[in-house]
Amino acid sequence: MATAIDAAQVTYEAPDLALMEKFLTAFGMTRVEGSDDRTLYMRGTGTQHHIHVTRKAAKQRFVGASIEVAGHDDLAELAALPGSSPVRASAEPGGGHEVVMTMPDGIEIRAVCGRAKAEPLLERAPFAMNNIRDKNRLHTSVRQSVAPCTVARLGHFVLHVKDHDASMAWLNERFNFLPSDHFVPPGEDGPIVGTFIRLDLGEQLVDHHFMLLLESDWVGVHHSAFEVTDMDAVMSSHDYLVQEGFSLDVGVGRHLLGSQIFDYWKDPFGFRIEHYTDGDVVDASHRPTRFNGTASETTQWGNRPPLEFFR
């Protein structure tokens, strides 16, 4: 199976690229050279060439996600599986090669390798925090204006599928993913209806999850999530987006599974998008648990999502 090393990008379709660019710029991303009147490519401050793609279309739609793999041998292995495209040159800015696959419900998954790395963009250093025991910020103050934050990277995305087990089997046949935690129905011991998935990079620390797969009566993306510098970035950007009149969804709060401080928004076409910071990191030794609470119980403090949040 292929060795996945990063969440590379999410891809959408929408009828108005200028409107999407306005929102994503306020959200903290930067337009990439190679964007035109048919496709908008946006990047973060990290080294991924781009992390959010919008193609112009008559109607809004989530297309799928791209996963970076370790090498060309991984692409060749994926291309040999039923339903995969051949290994082919990418037509997107940054180049490289790709294999295009389709999950059982029609969601597109692209494996990418070899595209150009972006030069990191300047962003402020995280503020040191003074807690009751450790005084880490000495002879300096926190000064954070209300302004767009800088998005660093695509951290994870959440997919709704009709059949959790079939979709997990499809993913596990292709990639070296590991489960971090499982969802089961509220108040019950099973069956598993959701899995937080992480990368398997051995002893290297990785995010608690880079994907969540949830069984549902509808198919598509629940949200895509982008990591920012620290809690002050989340909070100041929250105030900025409110000030600019964008649509708040749920936030700010702290998750239970993964521990992230989160803030969910809706883009102009109704897609949920998240700022987050301070998530858990684990290595391959982490063992999954089962969560059987409601959506509101996935929040430890802050703005709790409604019961239908994950439906």
Radius of gyration, whole Å? 19 Å
**β-sheet strand percentage:** 35-45%
**Number of E-type strands:** 20
Number of helices: 4
Tell me the span between the first and last alpha carbons: 31 Å
Q: Structural class from helices and strands? A: mainly beta
Shape: globular
The major pleated sheet works out as: 10 strands, mixed
Mean pLDDT: 97
Estimated helix fraction: 10-25%
Uncertain segments are none
- Sheet with the most strands: spatial strand order: 19-10-11-13-9-14-17-16-15-20
Explain the overall architecture.
The protein is mainly beta and 311 residues long. It has helices at residues 17-27, 72-79, 164-174, 231-243, and strands at 4-14, 30-31, 39-43, 52-56, 61-69, 88-89, 97-102, 108-113, 151-161, 178-183, 194-198, 206-207, 211-215, 220-228, 247-255, 261-266, 272-277, 281-282, 289-291, 299-302. A 10-stranded mixed sheet has the order 19-10-11-13-9-14-17-16-15-20, covered by helices on one side. The longest helix has 13 residues, at 231-243. The radius of gyration is 19 Å and the shape is globular. It starts with a strand and ends in a 9-residue tail after the last strand. The model has no long low-confidence stretch (mean pLDDT 97).
